[in-house]
Structures
1.
Amino acid sequence: MSHGLTLFLIMLAAGIVGGGVNYLLVGKYGTVFYKDWMLYKAVFVGIAASFLVPLFLNTISSNLLLESKQEGTQLFVFAGFCLIASISSNRFIKSISDKFMQQLHDVQHQVNNVKQDVEALTEKNTEADDSIIRNDPYEIRMLHRGTVAEEIQLEQSPSLHADPSLKVLQALQEGDYVFRTVTGICKETELKESCILRILQEQIQLGNVVRSEREAGIRYHITPAGRKYIGRHDHVRMDILSEKGEQIS
């Protein structure tokens, strides 16, 4: 008999016996036992719990399955695990399910953090492509201008720093660190912390900034969309300045 078939039969037998024991411990004896559907329910759940034992052993990095192939006495230990699991089937299944889902969540969280780190570091160390498609200057201004006050402010100042949002984005883009703190942005931009937090929240919703929870605390970094946002406004500013120069001349 193969080792795999032996383990299968042990899990099946332990599930049936453990389910029966579970029924005897908590069952009601008002009817004939073989006519009581609770018995079959207990046996079925016990078998399911017994077949989860290999997964449980894998989560705790146990070599019991491999050792049982090399040493026959370890099969009795494995059978004991399966029997205990089937007797306490409800609690065992819930425990395994909760632990597995927590591990899955932790892995997903780590993958997301690594993905954000890689994307940010790649953007920081990759030369930007400044070949932006230029449409009609009037159309660009209509697409990217905000309120009338913002238009006047943009026309009056040739600097990106006239707009607090652009000032924060440029601090994220041109700073010495990829992942920035609010304190660091405050020192660089000379804006109030409350103003920066509001701007960061707005830019996160627009997809221009990402907020990440790291071991050292909350950090922010600019996204490719944020870099393009700065580039678009830079070109709009240049178009406006060029147009003003033509009007003056």
2.
Amino acid sequence: MTQRHDEVTTGAGRFAYSRGARTLHWITAAAVFVMVPLGFAMTYRGNTLDIWDGVTDALYSTHKLIGFLVLWLSAGRLIYRLLRGAPPDEPTLEWWQKAASHLVHWALYGLLLIVPLLGWIGITLFPSLTVFGLFDLPALAAPNEEVAKRVLFVHGWVAILLALLVCGHIAAALFHYFIRKDGVLRRMLPGLK
């Protein structure tokens, strides 16, 4: 089966991701960089300091809204990837680096779906579906606060796993750019020299 590649086909750019794939990647990256510290801030303020005011509510509402958007953005990214494929692997990589890269990428796709889905299930069970007092997210289950606590606990730890995997992903990209000086990072930033 041949895989369709939506890529730049001139010069070194033939290994770069398409503009659409790059755009979805960087929007998702920005959302994750907001969500992780926001999640820590809101839970520290609410659960640790026991401050439940308008600021805490705004933090939780922002987290819920961005998380809901990340779920659908990630689903869209996955569909885009499955339909459009990906450019060929960077040719300078060893076989085990290619395997590790594919494993990390698919793990990131999975976690970017699982983490917000667990959050959505958790706030459904709690129930705490209201966003900024303006609207409610759709409910996925009947309320059950005890189960909600367990689901949200898992959500938090899986989010930390996602953050660690993202850090490893970034470290690998920087290693390839600064140490190996190959084209790995140019796949997402084709303008780099």
3.
Amino acid sequence: MSTSDPADDIAEALARLRGRRPHGPGHAHGGPHGHRGGPHEGRPPRPGPWAGGPGGRFAAPAWMRMLEALAAASAPLSVSEIAEAVGVDQPRASRLVQQGVERGFVQREADPDDARRTRIALTDTGRRVARGAKGERRQALSRALEAFTDTERAELARLLNKLADNWGPGA
């Protein structure tokens, strides 16, 4: 845990866990969010600013993870790096990038070290969408934590960060 505000620590741990979705059976076909069952099963997902227009949904969970990964990166990312950060395979990451380019949220740039490769960067529009989604999640988290005591917030932050530290291959 890096900050004195447990809400910030919780938000960071949740962001770390979001990028570490399990791969394998059920991931790609386990429903709109890569899982089966749960309290939201059968409900249509709520579209956000990344929605593709009337009736079109734009891969919201993976899409937002891609925007967040690009926003957090110190330099443009390769499609492979995006796939790793988002928790999807490379073909899915390529489709997300293509959709992002079509909507003006990301752009392809030549890799300065290898002209055969491209890097992916956020556009100004993509940066605004990523910043807005992060702010909305932070507000929702703060509202949810209002019912917790200071001690409970700190304990939740500690446990979520412990989970995020130990989640992954071989854990």
4.
Amino acid sequence: MNIKILGPGCNNCANLEKATRQAVAELGIDATVEKVTDYGDILSYNIMSTPGLVVDEKVIVSGRVPSARQVKDLLTPLMS
């Protein structure tokens, strides 16, 4: 699983990365978590506000910071 955190590096982006890494660890899944800070790359995902959470090139969340529990709930159906 390839997970991307989209954002310029603000506190919300850092919080989303932390929640995502915690969720991945708690689920015990094999995932790569990558931060994307380049504005051109972020815009390519057509999100209107950051932070964004992208899983396997599909935007899952944008413009808010879900809790680690919510990230787990979002990732669980995508595990296969």
